[in-house]
Amino acid sequence: MTGDSMATDRAELRRSLQEWDQEVGLELWRVLGSFDVPGASYAMNAWFQSRPAYGVSVPNLWKSCLVQGASGIPAYSDCRAAFALPYASDAPPSTRDAPLGSDPITPGLPRYAMDRHGGGINMLFMDWSVRKVGIKELWTLKWTKEFDRAGPWTKAGGVQPENWPQWMRRFRDY
Asked: pLDDT class for 45, splitting at 50, 70, 90?
């Protein structure tokens, strides 16, 4: 698969997720929380399913939980939407209570990045263990088979404390 076709697949899948959220997701998963706008409460990792979503061929899908390293692969967790498709390049949400659609790349990690449980969120992993995950730690988890765990929003990738939005700077770095 070429870089151009991967970018096209990524854009098409994100567009499908946004349409799903607008038409179905928010109605099914609506929960009033600490945010100014209603949203969801929990979401599955959209990369964890047995077949490509919305007709888009995606080579990074986890088709089973029977994989090596399952204890570090997110399956389900606290989230501001019912579905999310994380990429290592996803920038954090600009504000603490950023509503869905306020950031240009909301279908990914920004949907999980919230201070729901004292600096983190609760997460179910593919080995069926549950633990609290730090907000900035989200960028270091193995969301897909090829997820860059040393991506631009990690210490290993060179992010500096001042690169994070103001509301996230006080949280632990990873």
From this structure: confident
User: DSSP secondary structure string, 159-174?
Assistant: --GGGS-GGGTTSPP-
Say what the alpha-carbon torsion angle 141, 144, 150, 151 is, to the nearest 10 degrees.
Answer: -110
Query: Could you tell me whether strands 42-45 and 83-84 are parallel, antiparallel, or unpaired per DSSP bridges?
Result: parallel
Is the pLDDT assigned to residue 30 strictly greater than 90? no
Q: State both tokens at 52.
A: 């490509």
Decide if 149 contacts 142 (C-beta within 8 A): yes
Alpha-carbon dihedral sign for residues 4, 6, 10, 16: positive
The pTM assigned to this predicted structure is: 0.74
- pLDDT tens-digit map of 140-149: 999 998 899 9
Query: Where in the chain are the domains?
Result: 3-168
- Cβ–Cβ under 8 Å, residues 132 and 122: yes
